[in-house]
Amino acid sequence: MKVAGFGFKKDVSLASLREALLAAGGPEGLAAVATVSDKADAEVLKQLARECGVPIKALPADVLSGIDTPTQSKLVVEKFGTGSVAEAAALAAAGPRARLIATRVVSQDRSATAAIAEGDGA
Known about the structure:
Layout: E1 2-8, H1 14-24, E2 30-36, H2 43-52, E3 56-59, H3 61-64, H4 74-80, H5 85-94, E4 99-106, E5 112-118
């Protein structure tokens, strides 16, 4: 199971989410997209999920907290307790033995991040 995890700012555009996903490896083979619960209802993420034909996995912030990620954002660590929402969401949604196949990439406008993990599902 391959899952794309996303972190993004409130005013993110669909183009920025697409750009981050493409930079991380693209939508081919994805089983789901994932993010922290309080962002899962964002209309632009719903649009991207529809385009990719996959569901959105919403993960509570406490599930993401403490997940060790290869990349670290000081702001994200302070707010979420993990180094990357995108990486942590991808790992958590892809299952207990998931591994990152694409670490966090950032859109050019810095409003979206994406990472892709592969695992056996939760």
